[in-house]
Specification:
Length: 521
């Protein structure tokens, strides 16, 4: 009887599927396959790589700084499917056709390195991390053992050490993860492991109702982590924030007492340094005092705001971060290290990360290797294969120096200040709040609404303004910035400044363009 997979093989009946015919007398055949010599045409492959690199250079790198280029070439999904020739066929396609496809992929992709891409918490082109990426893509390493990734493991160690220094710890540990969301999840699990170390073997049964606290402005990854780890989203206590989006410490303490009264077991407080929408920084010192009083693990999600630590002028935003037990920090955001580049840093030096995550696979982490196996750091991760993300940041840091990174942060925040002042001056623009960081949240009020009283009808009408302007800007391809409704506030724009390619002129353009696109509403 044939299996389903036999019956459904897409290659059945394909005229191109033939047995190989040996051309040499000495050819060795196994199952009809000639085994002599390599079968790839290396010369043709090398030429293809060269031509594709030239295309990337011409169409991506050289155009990245040109504001006359479009940020995006918008097409609706059904149309884009037709344009892209997505089908994968039984026979391969010639190189000239593949290069055409590469050109199409570039053309219809959003140019996140364009100086007028302000849509997310990452942007711009960093030449050094780009080269690091090219190198790691070409070398294809996996960062788990020193034997396969000697350089990248040492680079990761050096970068983590430096980040730990900037947090203000004397020593610590860490690991690069695929995303700040994953770092937050690692931290939550680590805090729980510290609270009940036998959870690793015994699992969840028998545990009290574990509860954690974070601000109402925290990143949504906290909820995801709680559900993924079996803590449950109902056991994430959202602490109220003040008018600027900062956690209110007194509310935190009240909620901890309340949870204890209800018989729950508090184990973690997660503060945010640089919230996703408003860019707010929680008061870490006060929160650390509370954590100390209650014996709770303090995790700081500094995925976005951590980069302010590089600036002597702005690092005060994170005052008290050295008191955290763990910190998530994404150099791929403000420091432009290329997605993904995200570290979880841990103050503990008792090998907690390893104790919590290791599985001691004997085929990979043999203890009798001929070198110091403490460099086989992969068992601190929940991953097996892992990308050398620290290398991107290392290259950028090497190229710019600490002073260059500081300048990048200072400039982004100075440009943000400029935009804030321009918004205040211009008719029809209204700031939501005075920003602390590089998130500038504002409404555009079109002329037809400017005389209207701020009642329900006004807010209802204003709610459609940002989405409509966003649609228009994307169809035109002139710029991209995000909008959202947020905690009772109707849709507003969130402008994020990151890239050193961005200039004062781009800030002026942004406001002019919004006004141009929304003036008739
Ligand atoms: C505060 C904060 N934490 C965590 C994350 C998640 O980071 P990632 O996108 O790398 O998973 C973000 C993303 O924007 C964020 O703003």
């Amino acid at each position: 009887m044939s299996s389903d997979s036999d019956r459904e093989c897409p290659l059945d009946g394909d005229p191109h599927q033939q047995e190989m015919v040996p051309s040499k007398k000495s050819a060795v055949l196994v199952d009809g396959v000639v085994l002599n010599g390599p079968t790839t045409d290396a010369k043709a492959g090398e030429k293809f790589v060269e031509e594709a690199c030239r295309l990337i250079m011409e169409e991506v790198v050289l155009k990245a700084t040109d504001v006359s280029e479009k940020v995006c070439e918008w097409r609706p999904p059904e149309q884009l499917k037709q344009l892209l020739d997505l089908d994968m066929r039984n026979t391969g396609e010639p190189h000239h056709r593949l290069l055409e496809l590469c050109r199409d992929v570039i053309r219809y992709s959003v140019k996140t390195n364009h100086p007028r891409f302000f849509n997310q918490l990452y942007a711009g082109l960093d030449y050094y991390s780009l080269v690091a990426r090219f190198m790691t893509e070409a070398l294809n390493p996996s960062v788990y053992t020193y034997e396969v990734s000697p350089v990248f493991l040492l680079v990761e160690e050096a970068v983590l050490k430096k980040m730990i220094e900037f947090i203000g710890w004397k020593e610590g540990d860490g690991i690069f993860n695929p995303g700040g969301s994953v770092s937050n999840m690692y931290a939550m699990n680590l805090a729980r492991y510290k609270y009940c170390p036998d959870i690793k073997e015994k699992g969840l049964s028998g545990l009290p109702r574990l509860i954690l606290f974070t601000s109402a402005e925290c990143h949504y990854s906290m909820k995801k982590a709680a559900s993924f780890l079996g803590i449950g989203t109902e056991n994430v206590c959202f602490v109220e924030t003040d008018g600027r989006g900062k956690m209110i410490p007194e509310e935190l303490e009240k909620q901890i007492w309340q949870a204890r009264k209800e018989g729950a077991a508090p184990f973690l407080v997660c503060a945010t340094s640089g919230t996703t929408v408003l860019g707010a920084f929680d008061p870490l010192d006060e929160i650390a005092d509370i954590c100390e009083r209650h014996g709770l693990w303090l995790h700081v999600d500094a995925s976005w705001g951590g980069s302010a630590l590089m600036s002597r002028k702005h690092r005060k935003l994170l005052r008290g971060i050295h008191r955290a037990d763990s910190v998530a920090w994404n150099p791929h955001k403000m420091l432009m290290a290329g997605i993904q580049c995200c570290a979880l840093l841990v103050k503990d030096r008792s090998d907690l990360l390893k104790k919590c995550y290791s599985a001691k696979a004997s085929y990979l982490f043999q203890q009798d290797k001929f070198y110091d196996v403490s460099y086989d750091t992969g068992d601190k991760s929940i991953q097996c294969s892992r990308r050398p993300d620290a290398f991107k940041f290392w290259m950028t840091w090497k190229a710019l120096g600490t002073l260059g990174l500081e300048e990048r942060v200072n400039r982004a925040l100075a440009l943000s200040r400029y935009l804030v002042e321009e918004i205040k001056k211009r008719e029809g623009f209204k700031l939501l709040l005075e920003p602390e960081y590089a998130n500038i949240c504002f409404w555009y009020i079109p002329p037809s609404l400017r005389e209207m009283e701020e009642g329900p009808e006004f807010w209802e009408k204003l709610n459609v303004v940002a989405p409509t302007i966003k649609e228009r800007m994307m169809k035109k391809g002139s710029l991209m910035l995000g909008y959202q409704p947020h905690r009772g506030k109707v849709n507003f724009f969130r402008q994020v400044v990151i890239s050193p390619q961005v200039s004062r002129e781009d800030m002026d353009f942004l406001l002019d363009e919004i006004d141009l696109l929304g003036r008739d509403m």
